[in-house]
Amino acid sequence: MDRRGQFGCLDEILSILAGRPDIVALNADIGRNEGLQKSLKEWRQTNRKDPFMGKGQDLYRKARQLIPGGTQLLSKRPEMFLPEQWPSYFSKAKGAEVWDLDGRQYLDMTHCSVGACVLGYADPEVDGAVKAAIDAGNMATLNCPEEVELAEVLLQLHPWAEKVRFARGGGDAMAVAVRIARAAAGRDKIAFCGYHGWHDWYLGANLGDDTALDGHLLPGLAPAGVPRGLRGTVLPFEYDRIEQLNAVIAAAGPDLGAIVMEPVRNEPAVGFLQAVREIATRTGAVLVFDEVSAGFRITAGGSHLKYGVNPDIAVVAKAMSNGYPMGAIIGRAAVMEAAQKSFISSTYWTDRIGPAASLATIRKFRDRHVADHLISLGTRVQEGWQAAAEQHGLSVHVGGIPPLSHFSFDYPNGQAVRTLFTQLMLDRAFLAGTSFYPMLAHTSANAQSYLSAVDEVFGLLAGAIAEESVERRLKGPVAHSGFARLTG
Q: Residue 335 and residue 280: Cα distance in Å, rounded?
């Protein structure tokens, strides 16, 4: 085919336009390839790598105008990870993967929804049980039979206990446990160790000393709104420091009603838990083990089962239901019956979804030997952090039991180093901070790809520290290390 056949029509059009400048002028205000440029701009906005411009940050700025503090959970505030850059919101979560509002996919190697999902996101067995519960009706005037079945399962896992009450979250369940303990003992004062939630009974520790919770919670938490009458009712002691507990016992005198503590976050010193149990028995105080974080991570049920030390009350939540609201207060009958002397009751503690999710979660946890996987993967990651730090000459402290692993950068500007770590890992499609709570959904390949990225990033951090350029390399502010009031 000759040129005339291929381009004849185009030549005729060009000839006509050459003689009709008025027609050409009609499109003079339209830029060359404007449609293409518009499409490219939209694509870049959708697929941009600069998190400053992401939909999640846009929505979070709006949320801060509508919601005091911006989020419902302090641990999920973007400022706790990477201010002005963190994706903030998810559109989808499956297995160990999370998608943000811009469609970007990340491997979640953080605390994985603050330890709520021990199996992984959108677990098919748990979600199937929940969907069946919804189809059968989640709420009615009558009670759901699943709560009786769940009580039986929990008592089988904890043979020292005889009674169970339910709530729908860890903080609420701990408040119930403390109410029952005080009612059973007939005394008000509490000796505590560790983090136990947001309720008045706990924050009351800061009424007398605004640093009392610094070693147990996040620095900077003022007890605003907590009744002043609670001053002196909650007395802290440090983990593995039995002499501090003895001092608290002496200060509380005959008014000590309960000892409340997490049985494990780090491996306890030999004899520590046994000594606490002996003190509680001797003083008549109710011993409450807060298993909200550690429960269902190193064994089915509470971590105290591994150590052979039984409390009077154990509280489990989070991992027991894989992302659905649930909490349980498990205890000896003589103590738990004190609940009848108080008023402990809430409508949504009777829904069907929570017990159904818990039964499915516990069943899979036991069938798949999930604790073994969590311990193995957590150990591998802890060893990987340590090896990468040594390789690059970084001063890093690794701690926690393997299923609740964490590390810290031991530098005067350690918080800035942590922020840069998160920023560089986000660039590599990892949600990462300085803690890692493994899930069943995490694979060996996930751990390997993560640790390869950690090794690379630790090398970059070592260079930045040597050059004193850590702060200059940040694209936004340094992450918060404690409670900070948000404005604007």
A: 13
